[in-house]
Amino acid sequence: MVRIILGHKNPSSSSLCPHDGMMADPSRPRWSLVVSLVCLRAIGAAFGTGKAGIGIAGLGAFRPELVMKSLIPVVMSGIIAVYGLVVSVLITGSLDPAQPYPLFTGFVHLGAGLACGMTGMAAGYAIGHVGDACVRAYLHESKVFVTMVLILIFAEVLGLYGLIVAIIMHSSTSTIGCPAELLAS
């Protein structure tokens, strides 16, 4: 049953390598997992930008000279999306339609995409809330600025950890191939 769900044409086949894996089907693009990675990262970045932008707009109404210094959360949210782009380019660049795409590699790429995407969404959420609250506090007390930057760095590191995990996972697939006897069957 599991092999049928994963896309194997022959449920009695013991092979997890040949071209019958779930992402090797030509009718299903292999890059669909990359799209989910970029979307999760973009959701996090968009939330962080929007939430921090609300605080910046409120600050600008009272003290417009502080707006440029308060853009740090928005810039850091944009960096979150760039991390996802890096991993998606790595995964997409390793795909070759002429080569077999082992099921193991597909699941590792999926896991790398989810690790990177989910940490990006969490980092964007944290940056948005911290950015909004700290920018509003910065309106009343300028000493909050350094604290805001430090907290934002720690929130950004969440996304960086996901990038590192995804790169490590992706690099583990470069040495995995299908044994010749499985490709022949």
Give a written overview of the molecule.
This protein is mainly alpha-helical and 185 residues long. It has 6 helices and no strands. The chain has helices spanning 2-5, 32-62, 72-94, 103-140, 144-171, 180-184.
What is the element string, with H for helices and E for strands? Answer: HHHHHH
What portion of the residues fall into strands of 2 or more residues?
under 5%
How is the quaternary structure best described?
single chain
Largest sheet: none
The rough form would be described as elongated
CA radius of gyration is 22 Å
Task: State the distance separating the first and last CA atoms.
Answer: 20 Å
Structural class assignment: mainly alpha
Number of helices: 6
Top keywords for this entry?
mainly alpha; single chain; 6 helices; 185 residues; disordered N terminus
Quick overview:
70% of the residues lie in helices and 0% in strands. It contains six helices and no strands. The protein is elongated, with a radius of gyration of 22 Å.
Architecture blueprint of SSEs:
Blueprint: H1 2-5, H2 32-62, H3 72-94, H4 103-140, H5 144-171, H6 180-184
